[in-house]
Amino acid sequence: MPRLQVKRFAGLALAEAPALAEDILREIRLEYPHLPLVLDESGEPMALVGIRRAIEGFVRLQLADAEDRPRSHPVVFQEFGRDQSLHGRSLDSLQAMYRLGVRLAWRRLAELGQRALIPPPAMYELAESGFEYLDGLVDQSVRGYAEAAARQAGERLRLQRRFIDLLLAERPDQPEHPARAGSAPPDPARALAERATRIGWPLPDRVSVGVLQRPAREAVAPAVGQGVLLDMETEQPRMVVPDPDAAGRPELLRRAMAGWSGAIGPPVPLRDAAKSLRWAEAAVQLVERGLLPGGEVLHCTEHTQSLVLLQPEELIDDLARRALAPLAHCGPTHARRLADTLLAWLETRGGAPEVAARLGVHPQTVRYRLRQIRELWGDEIDDPDRRFELELVLRARRLKDERGG
């Protein structure tokens, strides 16, 4: 093409760009009447600015001299993508608007091409370049959309972590900030509800709180499903399960937690979430000590006896030293046999035959041991409180022995 002819066509197109941009925006608003118009600092619609710059950018990119060609697409199209994300709209409608704009622009450029006597083969080539240019604009919008979505996700995670911190606080009834003189103290229940609303989490009546152990440092968060809150920023991730007994919830969690380990605390009213967390933490500590099975996510409600008897280790050990003091003067083996016999007698509340059957020994052996037990403890062995203490510490010791503790 003669350079003078190309320049004439480019001049016509650039002169037509403002009016063409207004026509395109008018048609888009007829097609999409609910499209909001956002104004820039000068009060001009950003959409109109973007369309005009897109037309001018395309003309200069394809028809101007090399030194006048733009090196990038108009950045305003990134803003269009960000706006779609911030308002919860998909990119489909935005791309449909772009295609409508390209179709209208090409119709006008074809008319200008006839006026400038541009041959059809050259216009066809220009049309192909137009669709490539459109792909670049779409890429800009996708980038803006993705950036805004990432920021929104990050902000939601930040708000979610703050909500979990408030929910799991040891004293959620205490205000975060002291009330000013003469003003009523903040209502913690209301603060919790407001934060739940901000993250779109309906407040349930009951929750269970889990503590997880990562299978690897870079492990991807488990797909726990909608409604379950996860805080992956802590060394041991925390999980809040709403309505843990709801139909299908346990099975969903079991599948999602494959490969993870940890513990889920008992279901409690929402205001007592910190209590469920404490039990989950206690269970994880027992797993780390080898007193509960590892390699899976345990439910505390299935290990109540171990948690009650093994978790307060110092208290149980102190009670065992006092309650089992009469055995201190017996040899280790004999003391163990007497302790086993005592526990079997306390559990069965039966005579020598029942205890013997439980231990797999002769009844006469049991009678001999029971006489020794009565000699060691005397009348205290008939005290209900003392019998309860003995059974408690002997059951705890049995649990530890069974788990290698």
**Total helical elements:** 14
Distance between the termini: 89 Å
**Multimeric organization:** single chain
N-to-C SSE series?
A: HHHHHHEEEHEEHEHHHHHH
The major pleated sheet works out as:
6 strands, mixed
- Helix/strand/pairing category: alpha+beta
Protein described:
The protein has 405 residues and is α+β, with helices and mostly antiparallel strands. It is built from 14 helices and 6 strands. It has helices at 3-31, 46-63, 76-86, 91-115, 120-167, 188-198, 249-256, 273-288, 304-310, 313-323, 332-348, 352-359, 363-377, 384-402; strands at 206-213, 229-231, 238-242, 261-264, 268-269, 297-299. Strands 1, 2, 3, 4, 5 and 6 form a 6-stranded mixed beta sheet that branches. A hairpin with a 6-residue loop joins strand 2 and strand 3 (238-242). The relative contact order is 0.06.
List keywords for this structure.
405 residues; alpha+beta; six-stranded mixed beta sheet; 14 helices; 6 strands; 60% helix; 6% strand
Short summary:
With 405 residues, the protein is of the alpha+beta class. The chain contains 14 helices and six strands.
What topology does this entry show?
Layout: H1 3-31, H2 46-63, H3 76-86, H4 91-115, H5 120-167, H6 188-198, E1 206-213, E2 229-231, E3 238-242, H7 249-256, E4 261-264, E5 268-269, H8 273-288, E6 297-299, H9 304-310, H10 313-323, H11 332-348, H12 352-359, H13 363-377, H14 384-402
Parallel strand pairs: 4-6
Antiparallel strand pairs: 1-3, 1-4, 1-5, 2-3
Helix pairs in contact: 1-2, 1-4, 3-5, 4-5, 5-6, 10-14, 11-12, 11-13, 11-14, 12-13
